Amino acid sequence: MDEFGLIARFFAPLAAAEPGALGLTDDAAVLDLPPGTRLVAATDALVAGIHFLADDPPGDIARKLMRVNLSDLAAMGATPRAVLLAAVLPRGTSEAWLAAFADGLSDDAQEFGAPLVGGDTVATDGPLTLALTALGLADGGVLTRAGARAGDDVYVSGTIGDAALGLRVLRGGLAGLDEDQRAVLVSRYRVPIPRLALGRALVGIAHACIDVSDGLIADLGHICACSGLAAQVMAAEVPLSPAARSAITADRNLLSAVLGGGDDYELAFTAPPSARAALQRAGQATGVALARIGVMMPGEGVTVGDAAAFGLVLEKRGFSHF
Amino acid sequence: MDEFGLIARFFAPLAAAEPGALGLTDDAAVLDLPPGTRLVAATDALVAGIHFLADDPPGDIARKLMRVNLSDLAAMGATPRAVLLAAVLPRGTSEAWLAAFADGLSDDAQEFGAPLVGGDTVATDGPLTLALTALGLADGGVLTRAGARAGDDVYVSGTIGDAALGLRVLRGGLAGLDEDQRAVLVSRYRVPIPRLALGRALVGIAHACIDVSDGLIADLGHICACSGLAAQVMAAEVPLSPAARSAITADRNLLSAVLGGGDDYELAFTAPPSARAALQRAGQATGVALARIGVMMPGEGVTVGDAAAFGLVLEKRGFSHF
C-alpha cells in the first residue's frame, strides 16, 4: 500500500464528516471560524519509548496523542475544532496496527468534536513518532499561565500522580496493589482525560491555568515563572485516588513521584479567594473535583509546605527531555 | 540545557513579534483572524535521510521545512499567518546546530510573514524529524485539486526537475555540469521557493491547483484523480532551467527524472483557454514564468504526449514512501 492508499483507507474516513478536510486529498484544510472567535493552536509530539511504550495498544497511543493536545486547549479554555496529524511510521508498520490506531483516533475525534482535517504520513528508520496539531476556538477570553496574583488560591482538578504510578506498574512496579487498582493507574497513564469543560468554565474565574503534563510541581513552577510569583503547596491537600493512596500508604516515598511525575493532564490553576463559590459551582457543573492545595505569594519557585510531615524528598521536579 | 532553556534561547526570539505566541511559554497560541477570512492549515513532516540529507546546512533544513509547508498554502491561494513546530531532535544535538536552524527559520518567518507561535521540542533516539504546521488565511475563495474541467489548459510555474537533479548532484552525479549549474540545482533542492503571490493571483482564474512535491506527473495525477479527468502533457513544453537543459542535453534519459522527480514546489494548475490573457498578467504581476504544458480531457491518468520524441521512459512516476 502506498502513502495515498494508506491515507485513503485509514485516515480519510476520519475526515468524512468535515467538509473543510476536503477528503484529505488536498494540500491543506480550509476551515470557516465563527465570527468573534479566536483561534487557539497547540502542537505536541510523542515518540515511542519516551512518551508511550512501543507495545502500548495502538488505539491507546492515538487517544493519548489526541488528548495531550486537547489538554493544551483545555488549559487555555478553548473548544476543539479540528486536528492535523504528522504520522512518522517505522517501515513495515502493519495494516492491523494502522487500523487500530485510526480507530482510536476516530473514537476520540468524535467524542471531542475534533475531526482530522489534514496532515502528513511519512516513513522512518527510527521509532514511531507522532505530532498532532490541535486547533481550537475561544469565545474571546482565554486562560494563560501569566495571570496569577499574590494571594490567589492554588487548585488542581481530579487526582494527581496516577499516571506516574501507572507507568511504574507498566514497568513492573507496585506489585503490592490489587489488579483493579493497577488497571486504574495504567489507564490514567495511557488514556488521560482532557478537562475541556472545566477549562471553559474557568475562563473569567481563574487568573492562571496550566495542564499537568511535566508534573504538578514543575507545572506550577511554570505559572510562577510566567506570573513572577511563588507558590506554596500543602502536600497533604494534593488530591489522591484510592489507588494512589494505597500505593503511598505502602511506600511513603512514592509521594515524591506523585508530586513530581507528569502525564496527569489535570488542570492546575489559581483564583482569588472571592472566587471560591464560583469554583464550587464550576466543579459541580462539569463533574470534576477541585482541590485547593496552596497559595500564591511574592517570590519565586514552588515550595511544598508540609513535605516534612510526609518524610518527603522531592528528588524529581518534573520531566525534561534534554 | 533543558527543554525550556532550549526553547527560550533558540525559539522564543522567533515569536517575539507576534503577541499571539505568548512568548512560547504557554500551552497554545491565540490568534485573532480578520473577519471574513477562512483558516487554511497544512502539516508536512521531514525526516533526515529521506527528505533532506542529515549533513545539509541546518539553516537550509529549516528553510526547506518552512517552504514545503508554505507551498501547500500557496497551492490553495492562501497567505501565511503563523507556524507551529514539532522538533524531534536526536540526543546530543549541538547548540551550534540549533542556533543555525533557528536562524534559518527566523529568516523565513520574517520573509514570509509566518512567525513561530507554538510547538513542541522532544528528544529521540532516531533520526532528526521535523513536523511543521502552517496556518494561513484566505479571503473567501481557495484553490483545490478537484475543480479541473475538460478542455482546461495545464500550466506549471517556473522550471521543473531542478530539485531532482540537485539531489543527484548531492549524491555525486551530473559531474559534467559546471560548478555554477550544480550550485543552482542544489539550491533548488535545498531551498525551494513557495509560489505564494502566484497562488493568490490564481484564485478566481485557475480551476484546480497543486504544488509539485511528489513529481510533476504524480501531482498532475492527483488533479486528475480529484477532478475525474485525464491530463495530456507535452514533454517538450515542460519548462527547464539552463542547468537542467544542459544536463538533459548530455543525458536524454534524465528527462524521465525531471518529469518524475519531486521537490520542485512549483505550482501546477489548470485554467480555461479564456483565461490565457489573465494568466499572462498574473505571471507578469508576480514575476513568475508560466508555461502551458498540456490539456485536460475526459478519461483518467496522465499521459506524456511527445515522450517518444525524447526517447523518454517514465520509470519513476513520483515519490511515495510506503
Give a quick rundown of the structure.
Chain A is an alpha+beta fold and 322 residues long. In chain A, 36% of the residues lie in helices and 23% in strands. In chain A, the strands form 2 sheets. Chain A has a 6-stranded mixed beta sheet, sandwiched between helices. Chain A has a 4-stranded mixed beta sheet with strand order 2-5-3-4.
The CATH architecture of the largest domain in chain A can be given as: Alpha-Beta Complex
Proportion of helical residues of chain A: 25-40%
Count of strand segments of chain A: 11
- Top CATH class of the largest domain in chain A: Alpha Beta
The CATH superfamily of the largest domain in chain A bears the name: PurM-like C-terminal domain
Question: What overall geometry of chain A do the principal axes of the alpha carbons give?
Answer: globular
Tell me the Rg of chain A in angstroms: 20 Å
CATH topology of the largest domain in chain A: Phosphoribosyl-aminoimidazole Synthetase, Chain A, domain 2
